[in-house]
Amino acid sequence: MTEWTEKGHEPGVVVLRDWRWFVRHAIDKTAVFVFFAMVVLAALPMGGNRDWAWAPLCVLLGLIAIPVSLGLGARGGHAVVALERLPLMVLVGSWLLFAAFALWQMTTWTPLTADAWLFARAAEILGSAHAPIPAIAVDAARNSLLKCLACALIFLMARAVCRDRDNARWLLIALVASGVLVVSYGIAMQMSTNSCYLGGFLRKQYEYTLGDRCLMGGTFVNSNSFACYMGMCVVAALALTFGSRVKKAKVPYGYDDEEDVRLMDWFTGPRVVLLALSLLMLGGMLMSSSRAGFGASMAGILALGLLLVRGRGRSRPQLGRIFFVGFAVLLVVGVVAGSGLVSKFAVSVDDSSRLRIWSAAFQAIALSPWMGWGLGGFGDVFTLLQPANSLQPNAIAHSTPLETVVELGVFAAIPAMVVVVLPWAVSLRGGLTRRPAYRYLPAGAFAVAAVPILHSLIDFSLQMPAIGFTTAALLGMGWAQSFSRSERAV
Question: Cβ-count burial of 459 within 10 angstroms (0-12 exposed, 13-18 middle, 19+ buried)?
Answer without folding.
Answer: buried
